[in-house]
Amino acid sequence: MINIHRKKKDLLNLIKILSNNKVIYLFDMSKLTCNHISIIKKRLYKYNINMKMIKNTLLEKSIKNIKNKNIKLFSNVLKGNTSIIFSNKSVENIIPKIIKKFRVEENIKNPILKVAYVQDSLYFDDINLDILLNIKSKEELIYELLKTIKTPVNKILLSISKNKIYEILKSLAIKK
């Protein structure tokens, strides 16, 4: 009886994770040691990114209950060991950066990406980790846009005299 309640609670928790997070990655971490997993978790935690080991059957049941996201295809990769890494923050490329850095430092090819849900799109297989590494968050895109706009605007403002700026602002204020 207690086991059934525990499973229902775990199912509801996983449904909440899948429904409420912007960024979801599934990895195979089967060839990693506990120490390796601990290192990855600590690095993710610095960015408020969570990681959980999950059972594929539980994840499959959770996926069937998700209405607001196109993650039904997650079911296609549910073989072997599965870990879920998730966040509601704009950390689209932080997770691949952490994984790539970890692989280089430890000189291993694991963990292996199964699938990622990023910016309402699915990315399957480890070959897409490099693509995910270069995805920019909305904040990064806005920053780059403002940075490119800033230079021409500064040139225009510098070319206009102080009196002319005052006259422009004064005329705008009068029109209101």
Question: From the alpha-carbon coordinates, what is the Rg to the nearest angstrom?
Answer: 23 Å
Strand segment count: 5
- CATH homologous superfamily designation of the largest domain: Ribosomal protein L10, N-terminal RNA-binding domain
- CATH architecture assignment of the largest domain: 2-Layer Sandwich
Mean pLDDT: 86
Q: How many discrete structural domains?
A: 2
List the strand order in the largest sheet: 2-3-1-4-5
Proportion of helical residues: 40-55%
Largest sheet: 5 strands, antiparallel
Strand share of the residues? 15-25%
Q: What is the CATH C-level name of the largest domain?
A: Alpha Beta
Structure description:
- This protein is α+β, with helices and mostly antiparallel strands.
- It folds into 2 domains: 134 residues, Ribosomal protein L10, N-terminal RNA-binding domain (Alpha-Beta Plaits); 36 residues.
- Helices cover 53% and strands 16% of the residues.
- A 5-stranded antiparallel β-sheet has the order 2-3-1-4-5.
